[in-house]
Amino acid sequence: MISYHDFRQKFLDFFQSNGHKIISSASLIPENDPTVLFTTAGMHPLVPYLLGEKHPEGARLTNAQKCLRTDDIDEVGDRWHLTFFEMLGNWSLGYQGGEVKDNDPYWKKESIEWSWEFLTDKKWLGLDPQKIFVSVFAGDEIAPRDDEAAKIWQEVFARAGVEAKVGEGERIGLYGRAKNWWGPAGQTGPCGPDTEIFYDTGKEHDSKFGDKCHQNCDCGRFAEIWNNVFMQYAKTFDGDCIEMTFKNVDTGMGLERVLAIINSKSSVFETEGFLPIIRKIEELSGKNYATDFETTKAMRIIADHLRAAVFILGDERGVVPSNIEQGYILRRLIRRAIRFGYQLGVKKDFTPEIARLVMQIFGKFYPELEKNQDRIWHELSAEEKKFSQTLAAGLKKIEIMVRKIHRLENVLTQFNDGDFDDDDDRQFIQSILKDQWLASGDFLRRMLELKDKVEIKRLVDEFVKFFKISGSFVFDLYTQEGFPPEMIKEVMLSVERPVMKFETIKLPLELDWEGFDKLFKEHRDISRSGAEQKFKGGLADTSADVAKLHTATHLLQAALRQVLGAGVAQKGSNITFERLRFDFSYPKKMTVEQVKQVEDLVNGAIKEDLPVKCEEMTVEEARKNGAIGLFTAKYGERVRVYTVGNDKYFSREICGGPHALRTGELGSFKIIKEEASSAGVRRVKAILE
Q1: What's the confidence (pLDDT) of residue 493?
Q2: What distances in angstroms separate CA 100 from CA 94, 117, 313, 580, one per listed residue?
Q3: Are 115 and 226 in contact (CB under 8 A)?
Q4: What is the pLDDT, as a whole number, of residue 249?
Q5: What span, in angstroms and rounded, lies between the C-alpha atoms of 114 and 136?
Q6: Neighbour tally for 451: CB within 10 Å
Q7: Which helix (H) or strand (E) holds 455?
Q8: pLDDT < 70: residue spans in the chain
Q9: How do the residues of the chain divide into helix, strand and coil, expressed in percent and rounded to 5?
């Protein structure tokens, strides 16, 4: 049995003893790569050096890299999938052929032999050589079979007394480009074959996955533990692969996954990097991890997501929760963890407690966690407090709707059986028709009008076939409560349906996403309609970016009035694709402290993710409701009033649009300049980051 931290250290020590320099983990947030939000692999920060740039630490490198992937977030909760993980890797940069000397770049022979030594030598991991299986590139019309790697593996196995044939289903398996080829990262560039190393778990092969088991069989017998990539070729624009003069080796081993496999654990969550967190969740929930599948899954999701959140918040380039880019991913991870906490019955501030454990487990190796602990605890606590209110309100509405669906199922069963004559049930259906959460209500309306049992039965079948929860229900939960649409879907899939008295009719909990998208577009179009004329001189256009900046001017004006006084009034504005400019009445230059106060107020409103609501009313009604506007201007009989916030609103203005749906969409607000515009008028220029 090997511990989490011992495993990581053994890997680094091994490659250091073989001439590799240990380099620190790069930030989780890539510095100069707009194509990805997070560092997804160990090679990611090393791309410039894999392309030929000289690394300051030399040609042989090794490290444990912080990584985060969210492509498979819906799979988290099974035995193996994680969002945050550590990737152990070693690299050789710039091999040009010939004899390999100390500290020189190396090629396939050294890479394969060192992998074998680390895995099987008793000084290191001491795995049984008989349990090691590998795969190599089978070749195709673009690149030949990797016989070089296959021959090296045969020699390695032979020295250990293990027979190793090459071929399909053999110990050295052959696979095509989909399994044993890497790259290029773009349309052109370095690429090449790889060799993957597998561990035989001893699980019996299931014939439903094929007659013969092999390395990439889905039965679960073989688990991939290491991947060695040989960047041997350069892909050209015409699709050819040309042998490169300078070649690289890039290897990757998922620490958590391999640790679980070699320690004979059933999942990554049974390793010491997760077990203390799982035990704390058991304590907070009063439930046992192994109670049932749903409980186990919920605890795994909480442990994974909060561990990931701690590493994002604690990163040296750490971000905070928001509704854009990395901040959106962070917010989604935290909120999913909170929701599953609710599912387990944990309804108190628990995220800081989990964070404290994560820092205890990983803080020694990643000191940035302790360094940034105040930020971690503050942001987790604030997000949990805010979202708990949102979650409670949203779940209540969903629960009410589910109860109505349950009753509707019973009513439809009676319809289907031809014995429906209950006035209460008819009134219930009439009330359903008035609600906004049901799509395809026409079927119900026609049922009430029919007497023919055969026709009623046909309509029941049609209704069940096309039943969906309307897009308006999803839209209202998002715009009114701030309940994320993707989370609504998750909640609907996991909601427990009551035991039914009648079993004939069962309605699906499916959502009308097309209806949601339509309402979203309609809201946007309404917000933007007429803006081209009303704001012709002030807006570049009515695009999403301009709409966000325009919404920010509302927040800015409200913040200015809070800091400088109610005498502040708009004197003009101009918005481009990149910045906003806002002129306002004020007799003197703002102080540095005042500028900071205004920024903080605006960013506070953004962080609260407040709804932006539009209502039509008369000018007099607008004035009575506290809306500000240019009341000297000639308005029409009715005006649009945009309110940012709920009952205790942050801003309320007469305006023609366009606007964002919620403040959380804006990002981060920053004043870049405060200056005089004219006598008694100041000018602020600001951006959204």
Answers
A1: 67
A2: 12, 18, 42, 59
A3: yes
A4: 96
A5: 17
A6: 6
A7: helix 453-466
A8: 32-34, 185-186, 418-422, 436, 440-441, 493-504, 523-543, 630-636, 657
A9: 45, 20, 35
Model's pTM, two decimal places? 0.74
Q: What are the two backbone dihedrals, phi and then psi, of residue 430, each rounded to the nearest 5 degrees? A: -60, -40
Task: Tell me what pLDDT residue 614 has.
Answer: 85
Read out DSSP for 17-73?
HTTPEE-PPPPSS-SS-TT-SS--STTGGGHHHHTTPPPTT-SEEEEEEEEE--TTG
Question: Which residues lie across from 64 on neighbouring strands?
Answer: 88
Place of tokens 């980051």: 689
Burial class (CB in 10 A: 0-12, 13-18, 19+), 158: exposed
b/e burial code for range 419-445 (CB count within 10 A of at least 16 → b) = ebeeeebeebbeebeeeebbbeeebbe
Give dist(CA 423, CA 524) in Å, integer: 42
- State how far the Cα of 65 lies from the Cα of 248, in Å rounded to an integer: 18
Cα(621)–Cα(624) distance, integer angstroms: 5
From CA 579, how far away is CA 576, in angstroms rounded?
Answer: 6
State how far the Cα of 469 lies from the Cα of 251, in Å rounded to an integer.
Answer: 48
Rounded to an integer, what distance in angstroms lies between the CA atom of residue 203 and that of residue 325? 41
**Six token digits for residue 345:** 């019955």
Q: Which run of H or E residues covers position 246? A: strand 241-254
Are residues 384 and 349 in contact, defined by beta-carbon separation less than 8 angstroms?
A: yes
Q: To 5 degrees, how large is the angle CA 89–CA 90–CA 96?
A: 145
Task: State how far the alpha carbon of 473 is from the alpha carbons of 336, 339, 386, 390, 479, in Å.
Answer: 20, 19, 21, 15, 10
Q: Are 297 and 342 a contacting pair, CB within 8 Å?
A: no
How far apart CA 599 and CA 560 sit, in angstroms, is: 9
| Residue 433 to residue 440: CA distance in whole angstroms | 10
**Which tokens sit at 397?**
């509405």
From the list 134, 239, 147, the residue with the least C-alpha distance to 195 is: 134
3-state SS class at 120: helix
Query: What's the confidence (pLDDT) of residue 179?
Result: 94
CA neighbor of 91 nearest in space, from 321, 250, 259, 297? 250
pLDDT on residue 133: 97
**In contact, 313 and 333? CB cutoff 8 Å:** no
Q: Are the CB atoms for 640 and 616 separated by under 8 Å?
A: yes
* Gap between the Cα atoms of 223 and 201, Å rounded: 7
Q: How far is CA 668 from the centre of its chain?
A: 19
162 and 129 in contact (C-beta within 8 Å)? yes
Q: Tell me what pLDDT residue 503 has.
A: 57
For residue 662, give both structure tokens. Answer: 């919620």
The answer to whether 228 touches 42, Cβ cutoff 8 Å, is no
Q: Please answer whether residues 195 and 225 qualify as being in contact, where contact means their C-beta atoms are separated by less than 8 angstroms.
A: no
**Nearest CA among 428, 458, 434, 431 for reference residue 446:** 458
Domains of the chain in start order, with CATH, are 4-268 (3.30.930.10), 273-371 (no CATH), 393-521 (no CATH), 529-688 (3.30.980.10)
Q: Which of 203, 214, 308, 204 is nearest to 266 (CA)?
A: 203
Ramachandran bin of 322, using left for φ above 0, alpha for ψ from -120 to 50, beta for the remaining angles = beta
